[in-house]
Task: inverse folding
């Protein structure tokens, strides 16, 4: 049987989540881990997702136009590629799932890449992009597109939404960060809606906060380019505070940030949509100490190098 594989990167938003939905720039890193998809003829059309960190089956669905988001997403992929028949897609995800590290975009990119090869004629990147734009809107409503841009290309870049989005690659020295999940997270769509309600209730304050995030991003870009990690860390702390004021942090995220800073991290912030999910800490000199402190407090922390 033919087996075809595709890959997509997970992502770490270094600066600017949420404000990016409102037009501000953000800085994101595509991670060397994410999702790998394998396509093969099966007994029936099915999409299975395995958590590569635990080996557990996360989900197994059939394509269904009016089904769950995952069933709809799989149906949309097959429809866009005009594929029919008992096509099995098996995806392994190597980042925490649904926790702000871009697992859904990585899954969609990996599956779309594997499926486009299955069609038997070379497909342009734009077709993979069209599939992932569709599945990401099924999962997240009206996303900025930042997750999908990172999942497709990796690397560190500044992203500003628009038609087309602006993507500027940044050159940053490889740096070690510590990541931990802090608890279950509601959907990105509901968190983005919550920030929307904050904008409705306090339009002036919310737009000033967004502008401040934009300034943090501009300064962070300069500091990242210089490898000025002390400044990068301070700006992470400021960005976390601004996210707190938007209402997307949780006691668990705040606690993990405080533990990491106390253990020597230069800075720490939530990453992704928040409401739970992941935080990361910058500790280029002493990542082990930060991992240990978080683990002692019961967090499943791990170190990752932003390449
Ligand atoms: C989610 O990874 C990032 C958010 O800014 C939403 C988006 O950009 O679509 C919270």
Result:
């Amino acid at each position: 049987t033919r087996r075809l594989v595709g890959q997509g990167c997970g992502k770490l938003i270094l600066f600017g989540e949420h404000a990016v939905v409102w037009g501000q720039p953000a800085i994101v890193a595509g991670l060397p881990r994410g999702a790998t998809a394998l396509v093969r003829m099966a007994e029936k059309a099915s999409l299975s997702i395995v958590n590569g960190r635990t080996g557990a089956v996360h989900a197994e669905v059939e394509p269904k136009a009016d089904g769950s988001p995952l069933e709809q997403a799989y149906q949309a992929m097959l429809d866009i590629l005009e594929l029919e028949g008992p096509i099995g897609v098996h995806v392994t995800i190597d980042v925490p799932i649904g926790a702000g590290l871009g697992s859904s975009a990585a899954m969609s990119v990996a599956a779309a890449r594997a499926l486009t090869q299955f069609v038997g004629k070379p497909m342009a990147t734009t077709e993979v992009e069209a599939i992932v734009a569709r599945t990401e809107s099924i999962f997240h409503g009206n996303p900025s597109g930042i997750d999908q841009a990172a999942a497709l290309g990796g690397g560190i870049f500044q992203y500003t939404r628009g038609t087309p989005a602006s993507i500027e690659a940044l050159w940053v020295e490889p740096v070690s960060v510590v990541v931990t999940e802090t608890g279950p997270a509601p959907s990105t769509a509901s968190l983005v809606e919550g920030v929307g309600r904050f904008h409705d209730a306090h339009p002036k304050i919310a737009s000033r906060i967004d502008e401040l995030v934009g300034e943090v991003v501009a300064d962070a870009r300069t500091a990242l380019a210089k490898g000025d990690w002390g400044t990068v860390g301070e700006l992470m702390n400021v960005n976390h505070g601004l996210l707190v004021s938007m209402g997307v942090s949780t006691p668990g995220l705040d606690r993990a940030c405080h533990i990491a800073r106390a253990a020597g991290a230069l800075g720490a912030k939530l990453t992704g949509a928040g409401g739970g999910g992941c935080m990361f800490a910058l500790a280029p000199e002493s990542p082990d100490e930060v991992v240990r402190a978080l683990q002692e407090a019961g967090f499943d922390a791990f170190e990752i190098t932003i390449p």
